[in-house]
Design a protein that fits this description.
The complex is a heterodimer.
Chain A: H1 3-6, H2 16-39, H3 42-51, H4 62-77, H5 81-91, H6 101-109, H7 121-130, H8 141-152, H9 154-174, H10 194-197, H11 204-291
Chain B: H1 6-37, H2 42-57, H3 64-94, H4 96-104
The chains are: A mainly alpha, B mainly alpha.
């Protein structure tokens, strides 16, 4: 919440009247949104808060929760999109590059990883803001990492270390997979491709560290199943394409044969007409010159 | 008793019957295809476009031999037709009495 105060203030580029209009429309939109949120039951509000990286149980009344959600939405709207994409890339979340800021923020909120290597400073700032930390504009990378690690707490850290150790054992037992380069989802499948996730995940050790032994293994099995189904779907698609090409080729052959056949029939008819015509001509000639008295 | 040339009678009767029969069959077939392909169903629309694509893919060079023979046969047929007319005119010129007798009958 305090991070909202630390976000850099942007200079308005629109004329004052436009600013007034946009401010009034955003105020209307915000009040309408608050009214809609107020209609939701407590459970749904908590679920919504979790999607934005908030702990629903930390707020005593629904009004506090609504205010927190509203504040978090404003914070997300003020975030640098490129920095958010940095976090998405680093956290290997399955999302398309043209996804909305809210969707990016929801995906960032799901990232529980505590190994921050490879994440840029602006990405760390976004991550810290989404985890509810107070940051200063001049915070450098070590300071941001320190703040994030301090926020984790001792028991959570011990649990994570334990999970990492189990993940290491499991990884050595079943064989570690190699990390592939991250790729954004194609725009059409944004937000719903579990299949794409299978190609974007980290190693099994990291997964177990993040989600626990059962969660990590379940994820891995699910991803393997998704990958298998995807592979089979690709095979089926390729087979259908081959069949369609074959049908097209056969139709072209049938068309050529049919036209050749029709031309042959026309030729035979014309030959018969010409032959009969020639006979008739000879007949007429004989009749005119020899048969008529 | 009318003087009937059986060869000419057979030729004209056969030609007339076959021409009418072929015309009716061709018209029926083309009208059936037209009605079927004029449908507004999206599958029919797709089929229509597919047929157009197949028509555009058609190569004249595949059938050029047959097409050439057909054109030559058509030319020969027209020449024979013209030759018939010429022979009949010669006959009328050589035997005007036969023509006038035929007309008087």
């Amino acid at each position: 919440m305090t991070a909202l105060a630390t976000t850099p203030v942007q200079k308005p580029t629109a004329p004052p009247s436009a600013v007034v209009v946009s401010a009034s429309t955003s105020a209307i939109g915000a009040s309408a949104s608050s009214r809609q949120l107020a209609d939701l039951p407590r459970e749904e509000l908590e679920h919504l808060a979790e999607e934005y990286g908030l702990e629903g149980s930390d707020y005593k009344t629904p009004q506090h929760l609504i205010a927190a959600i509203h504040e978090r939405r404003q914070l997300i709207a003020s975030m640098d999109r490129e920095a958010m994409l940095d976090v998405i890339r680093w956290g290997r979340r399955p999302v398309s590059i043209n996804a909305s800021s809210e969707l990016l923020a929801q995906q960032i909120a799901k990232i529980k990883v505590m190994r921050f290597h490879g994440l840029s400073q602006r990405g760390l700032q976004i991550l810290a803001q989404m985890r509810g930390l107070a940051i200063e504009p001049n915070d450098d990378i070590p300071r941001l990492v320190k703040k994030l690690k301090r926020q984790e707490g001792l028991f959570k850290k011990l649990n994570r270390k334990r999970r990492a150790m189990i993940g290491g054992w499991v990884g050595s037992m079943i064989g570690e997979n190699v990390k592939q380069d991250y790729q954004f989802l194609p725009p059409a499948d944004a937000g719903k491709s579990a299949a794409g996730e299978s190609q974007r995940g980290g190693t099994i050790k990291e997964e177990i560290e993040e989600s626990g032994l059962l969660g990590g293994l379940t994820n891995r099995i699910k991803k393997s199943a998704d990958s298998y189904v995807n592979q089979k779907l690709d095979e089926i698609e390729a087979r259908i394409d081959r069949k369609l090409d074959e049908i097209d080729r056969r139709l072209a052959e049938w068309r050529d044969k049919e036209i050749a056949n029709r031309l042959r029939i026309l030729k035979i008819t014309l030959w018969a007409s010409v032959i009969v015509g020639a006979f008739s001509l000879i007949y007429s000639y004989i009749k005119v010159y020899f048969a008529t008295p | 008793m009318p003087d009937i040339d059986f060869f000419n009678f057979f030729r004209w009767t056969l030609g007339t019957v076959v021409t009418i029969y072929a015309s009716i069959i061709t018209y029926q077939s083309m009208y059936g295809w037209y009605l079927w392909l004029a449908g507004t169903d999206k599958h029919i629309s797709m089929l229509r476009r597919y047929l157009i694509v197949h028509g555009l893919r058609l190569r004249f060079l595949t059938f050029w031999g047959d097409v050439l023979i057909t054109i030559l046969l058509c030319v020969a047929f027209l020449l024979l037709w013209r030759a018939h007319a010429v022979v009949n005119q010669i006959g009328d010129s050589l035997h005007p009495n036969v023509l006038s007798a035929a007309k008087s009958r």
